[in-house]
Amino acid sequence: MTLPRFSLVIPAYNEACWLPALLDTIDAARAQYRGGGTAIEVIVANNASTDETAAIAGARGCRVAQVQKRLIAAARNGGAAIAQGEIICFVDADSRIHANTFNAIDEVLAGGKVVVGATGVRPDRWSLGIFFTWMVAVPMVYLMNMDSGVVFCRRRDFEAVGGYDEDYEFAEDVRWLAAMKRLGRGRGQRFARACGAITVTSSRKFDKHGDWHFLLMPLRIGFWMLFNKQRMRRETRAYWYEDR
Question: How far, in Å, CA of 161 to CA of 114, rounded?
């Protein structure tokens, strides 16, 4: 049996409302991929969902990895554990990918000079608060030489760094990207963006918490990190794990 070239992992907790729209865009990207749609497998890492997430994924032809540990890093790792593709990719379930995503990733990785990359991301709507949030975030993203959207690397390199660190409840993606960049640095490889294939992400956090909330959140989390770590943990769990 021919193994797929790409494994696209979608960590998902109670994403029945959002998953179908993402899968529609993945179908479009598979149809446009020059290597053929069968070269791309889709894995939904079902992170102890209590809704129809797993059923929807199975009905749409996705492979489903059942991950009971309620941790984003564990969900990503659980999906990656069953991946068969040479290139492994990750995308959030409330996203919509670009139709040229897999062609763009192929082009970035073709020269062998890139160890890890991302497509970049933009929100599905704009407002003054979201615009200012993006204006604060974008310079930091470029200074750190990181990005989000569909994030990708070779599966052997993912395994070499040990996957995502399950000691962390949030920012595990930033730590993983840093580890991947360190791996590549010793080999003369770098981070790169897959241009022209930007991912659209939902503004659901802004819809629920207000369009300005994200500008103040780092200050609040930092305050509780210094003075009350239990309160910080409650707040981060509520925001990233219980907010459905």
Answer: 15
